[in-house]
Amino acid sequence: ETLVEYFSTTHRRWMPGTLRVAASPGTLLSDPSVSYSVAVQTGPRKVQMRDNVSLDTIRTVFAEGDCVEVYNRKANEWVPATVQGEQLAPTLCGYRVKVAEGASGSGAAHAGRVLEKVAANRVRRRFPDRSLVARYMGPAEGFDFGFV
Description:
- The chain has 1 helix and 12 strands, in the order E-E-E-E-E-E-E-H-E-E-E-E-E.
- The protein has one helix at residues 90-93; strands spanning 2-8, 13-24, 33-43, 46-50, 58-60, 67-72, 77-83, 95-99, 114-118, 123-125, 132-136, 143-147.
- The strands form 3 sheets. The protein has a 5-stranded antiparallel β-sheet with strand order 4-3-2-1-5, with no helix packed on it.
- The two termini are 29 Å apart.
């Protein structure tokens, strides 16, 4: 089980959850399969299961040093940043990020500034040039690697 963020289309926001993976090996008559379920924390002591969720609705919780982009609502653009420090319940309390030095556009005015309690909906993963990335091709093919 892995701690993740699950995007709830009902609530239109990321919510904390625990990922559960069930894998079935292939046979002569069927391909291997993998299904993903998330136990979503909907309240202090309340959990709801979401079964057979698609991979685009889950992401790992961002950690210190992760490259991200923060959405600037006023300028309607994404600004490069880095996650700063240990994140305590970031899905509920927001992320602490530092706007990248040398950010352009609307980010230039905030370059080097630390932003507190940034809502999870306004943070997405960033892949700098020449970053090694993995692309999941399915249970039979596994992962494919490449560079941005």
